[in-house]
Each structure stands twice: as C-alpha cells, then as structure tokens.
Amino acid sequence: MTTQTLQNAILKAGSAWEAWNALGVTKRIEKLSKAAQQLNQPIATWLMDRIGTTMPAAVDLPGPTGEANSLHWSGRGIICVCADANQVDLDNGVYDTAIVAQLFTALATGNAVILQDTHKYTHRLHSVLLSAGIPEALVQLVSASLHDLTQQEAFHAYAFCGTSDTLAPLNQQLAQRGGMLAQLISETQFETYPTITSLDYPWRFVTESTLSVNTTAVGGNATLLELGGKNDS
Fold it and tell me: Domain containing 77: what range?
C-alpha cells in the first residue's frame, strides 16, 4: 500500500468518526453485537456487555447546592488496530481473539478504525462488520507495514497485538513520531489476556470531560446571564 492510499483511508475513517461517536454507546453496541454473533467470538460479546453496563453516557458527580456536575466520555478519534505480522500465523487463533477484542472495543467506545491487513482473518472481520451494518468508511482495511503505520500523525491510539520483543521498538518509534502523543494499548500475553480483561481496558480508548452548570453566582436567575450577554461587545 502506498502512503497516499494509507492517507486516503485515514481521511475516510476520519470523515465517518463524528457521526459514529455521536450515535451513542447503546446503538453502537446493537450493531456490533450482530457482528460478534456471526464471528462466534465470545470475548467480543463479553466486551460489548461489559461496555454497555459499566460505561454509561454520563455519570453524575457530587457538588454543592445549585451546581450540577457530570462526567462524560467520547471516542478518541482514529485508532490503528495492528499486529506483529511475523507471529499471527503461528498461534492457533490466539491472535485472532486479541485482534477481535481490540477492534470491537475501539468501535464500541466511539472510534473510527484503521485495521492492518496482517492475514486472512482480518478480511473476514472487515466483511462481517460491513454485513452487520457498520459504515464502510468507519473501518478501513489497509496493507501498510507496522513501520508505515507508526509514522502517521493522525492516529490517536494504537491497539497492538504482538510479542513483547516487538513492543519495545514499537514504543520507540511512537516516541519519535511527530504530532500528538498517541496511546499504545498492547496485548502481549495470549494465555490470560491481562490487558484486554483489565478493569480499565475500555477506558483507554476514550477521552473524559466534565460538565459543570452553576447559576448560583447570579442568584439562580438564568435571565441575568442572558442580560449580561447582550451587553457584551
């Protein structure tokens, strides 16, 4: 794949991200659950259930009288789901499970995905997602190398499946990359999947923000805020 082709895939994924992120976690999981059933991957179903029950769209936070505070989360943007291509055909399916987990979690939490084409199973994943109604632009299958992927500044995070030997140089490449800092979400142990099964795993794919609404400073009268705004120049 040429750099230009990879950049086109990134642009397509980016164009689909905002609408997918705004769809809401419940509707996203409804679509993804159909694909998980076709793939017969229990870990995908388990992750969808977990995200749906433990990650509400908003969480009310404590605050003083007259003030409302809430915690919200949103997808990071474009996630690169990638793997150690030298190992994927040697593992009797454990990489397949890890890639499914990374891909479905990235999508369920409101991100667009660039999926590295490492072996034939990624083609099946892509096909099943499209047949389940996932927007075509949202998941772009690319044949770029891991090195080429790490040079792209548009990625907000990398969801990597591979050996610990590959992880160290990958970290170094990402540290030298220009642009924004990118989260590296890696799974390197395929007997117990400690990253994928950790409590904070889905939260690593999102950004958090707080919303505070406070009218006590003007005596609780919201019309005073409107009057003040009219005098601003």
Answer: 3-60+68-213
The 3-state DSSP class for residue 107 equals: helix
Total number of domains constituting the chain: 1
Torsion of CA 223, 228, 229, 233, to 10 degrees: 160
- Residue 137's contacts (CB-CB under 8 Å, 6 or more residues apart) are 12, 13, 15, 16, 112
Q: Is residue 90 part of a domain?
A: yes
Across 34-60, b (16+ Cβ under 10 Å) vs e yields ebbeebebebbbebbebbbeebeeeee
Q: Over 90: is that where the pLDDT of 167 sits?
A: no
> What CATH number should be reported for the domain holding residue 74?
3.40.605.10
Top-confidence residue, 93 or 48: 48
Q: Does residue 142 belong to any structural domain of this protein?
A: yes
